[in-house]
């Protein structure tokens, strides 16, 4: 029987789908890489289902050989996996795209609204007894109607954010380094701009790019200084897209007005000083955290795993060339 290992337990219907076809083990925690490698050597598996916090390096993949045939991620991003090394070792890597688009877009709008209207700052003041009654100039925020939202990265999630923002009366501009197909319902309602112009003119910047060498610290000190002092930065993509140390300075010194963050550069640690920034709305990586979305992710993770076990290229394989020489036979 096939062997599947999860580093953390996954929600239903993962277990119900996998157990009829494989023996399922759960480590129950994010272990150091050396410990996980030793586990793979001692108890070989056909499919490893890691989390974003599990670094899947060439050495770890070697520890899984010769049985390991698939790394089935419970995530859409796969920057924690050495995909080239996996391909060289004929190990498929799969993810869970599409199903978390709406949940992440909702989270983005929540952060945008909270940061622009200073909701969390006001909540803290009210709880601390600092609210002394309505005043004409108390805790003024950004008027969203007519403001310009700049979306950096305009794939599924970026367009879902734009669609929601249009309902709040924002104007939409976007920047992208890849060719994208604009959904019919927002065609003619969005404008493409070079990223430098986007950063310098938008009232709100929302990040929706994958983490690559090119996007690491895409928003650095130079980018932050180019933004308007009244602008808001929102990041629900990947933490290292933003230079978090520079962002703390930007928030403290007023280069920008506020930020809404769901991801962090050295997650779960935050950059020194970020917690003290009252103009930062901090969410603990809740982008996909709805019951329906996490279940849908579990279903895709299970299906990708079963595909690999049955000798099929996983439904959502990011490196199909890993099996170009022929898929391994099904595990009996």
Automatic annotation (TrEMBL):
Keyword Nucleotide-binding: no
Lineage: superkingdom: Bacteria
Entry keyword annotation includes Oxidoreductase: yes
MF terms (GO), sorted A to Z: glyoxylate reductase (NADPH) activity; hydroxypyruvate reductase [NAD(P)H] activity; NAD binding
Keywords: NAD, Oxidoreductase
Any Pfam family hit: 2-Hacid_dh_C
Domain D-isomer specific 2-hydroxyacid dehydrogenase NAD-binding, first and last residues per copy: 109-287
Residue intervals of the D-isomer specific 2-hydroxyacid dehydrogenase catalytic domain: 33-319
GO cellular component: cytosol
Entry-linked InterPro entries: D-isomer_2-hydroxyacid_DH, D-isomer_2_OHA_DH_cat_dom, D-isomer_DH_CS, D-isomer_DH_NAD-bd, NAD(P)-bd_dom_sf
Family: Belongs to the D-isomer specific 2-hydroxyacid dehydrogenase family.
Protein name, as recorded: D-glycerate dehydrogenase
